[in-house]
Structures are given as C-alpha cells and as structure tokens.
UniProtKB/TrEMBL annotation:
This is Phenylacetate-CoA oxygenase subunit PaaC. SUPFAM superfamilies: Ferritin-like. It comes from the Bacteria. Pfam families: PaaA_PaaC. InterPro entries: Aromatic_CoA_ox/epox (IPR052703), Ferritin-like (IPR012347), Ferritin-like_SF (IPR009078), PaaA_PaaC (IPR007814), PaaC (IPR011882). Gene3D superfamilies: 1.20.1260.10. Transmembrane segments: none annotated.
Amino acid sequence: MSDEHLSASLAAGAEDGEGRWAFGTGFEDPLHGVDTTVPDGVDAGALAALCLALGDDALVGAQRLAQWTTDAPELEIELALANIGLDLLGQARLLYARTGQVDGTGRGEDDFAYWRDADAFRNVRLAELPRGDFAFSMARLLALSAWRLALFQRLAAAPDPVLAAIAAKGVKELAYHRQFAADWIVRLGDGTEESARRMQAGYDEAGPWLGELAADTSADALGGDAAGAAAELRQVWEETARAAGLTVGAYPAHSGAGRSGERTEHLAPLLEELQSVARAHPGAAW
C-alpha cells in the first residue's frame, strides 16, 4: 500500500447523506479501498490496542494545541500550532479507523473521539495536562513529537501494512513538529531573563513525564522498540536543553499508567469541551 494511496483516501467522497463531526462532513472511511486484512502472524488485539493508544495521544494533544487558537503570542505561531494540531487529528483519524477494523466492532473515528468517556482513553498523561504557558506547551510538544517520531520511524516497518503506512505518512509531519518546538525552546531559553526563566520552568514541569513515555512498551510487539525510542527522546531533550542554556534535572519519573487507563483530573474537562457539540446533537450533519 503506497503513501499516495493512503493520502488520497482522505479526500474521497462520503456516501450520500453521511455526515461526520471529525474534519467536517463529506468524508468516508479514511482507509477506503485499502486492503485492511490483518496479516497472518499479527496479534489483532495488540494492533488494535496500539492504534487506539496512539490515536488517543494524537487527539488529546491536538485538542490542547487548539486551545492556543486566538491566544498565541503571534498570528504566525497560532497558524503553525493549528496546522500541527490538524496533522495530529489526521493521524488520529487513520489510527481510529484502523482500530475499528481490527477490533471487530466496525467503529469509526467519531465513535472513538466523541462517544467515549475519560476512563476509556489510553493516551499518555503528558498529553492531557493543562495547556499552561507557551514555554510549557513547547516543552510538551518537543517531548511528545520527539518520542512519537522515534516510534513512527520504527513502525514504518511494522508487519501490519496499514499501520506501517500511517506511520510512514506521519514521519515528515512529526519531524516538523519536533523542529518547531526545539527552535522555540532555544529561542526562549537564549532570550531574555524572563523568557529563560519561564522556559526552564516549562522544561522542569514536563520533564518528569518523560518517564511515562520511556516506560511505554505497547509498540514493541509491532516493531516499535520502546528502548530505542526512549533513548532518542532523551537525546533530543538533552541536546535541545544544552542549546537553550537550560538545565536538565534528575527528574522523578512518572510511571506509564496512562496506557492502562489511569487519568489525571484534567482529561474529563478537556473531553467535555471536545465532545459537547457532538453529544448535544447526536447524528446531526452539516
């Protein structure tokens, strides 16, 4: 399955009368026309769980980025963050579609995004923390994008061709996300006394959550290599800190409980914001 085939399916027309909340309306299954049979030897349960978890990371992360709309320091930054959020929504959409196919339920992206409560989500908890200031948002974006990029580079060779294509498609997007965050961290860390203070605070707030990312082994069964991804994340985190003049502390590590369903108190209000319109008007279409 080619990347072009996967991308082209995003723009395919929906069946008459079908509307979706995600990405507006006029879209059908993003994997329409693609052979979605689970290959022999691939554990369907593990594949579904991984796609769901990675989709949740992307959806929740995108929603946090959306909170910068009309509130970013500059219009150019606002547009960049909106586009990064849209990249993540696109990844979530594909991953949710694959989950619904593999787990046998036939659920689509809207079912996963809008009709689950917080305790059913499996995202890493760093993604659901409050937006914070711009410095913290850049620290979080660096951590999540560097870690996700390392995973996607490995998952591009996954034994499931659909997951492999989704990962390969996301690599270029995530490389930009990582670079955008790193550039701003260096700019703020090497800026004024106040910007450096706030950037250090953002690093210190996000740093302990790197332990949860490093502890996540959910992708290993499909070629994700958690240890390798964790090493790359740590390298990017430390190199960016050095370039920005920041200190990387001996952070106490949070465990990887997000994947097993443990949530912070911040996810439920975020989902209420995300899901309110769809739940207020179930089945509606534009």
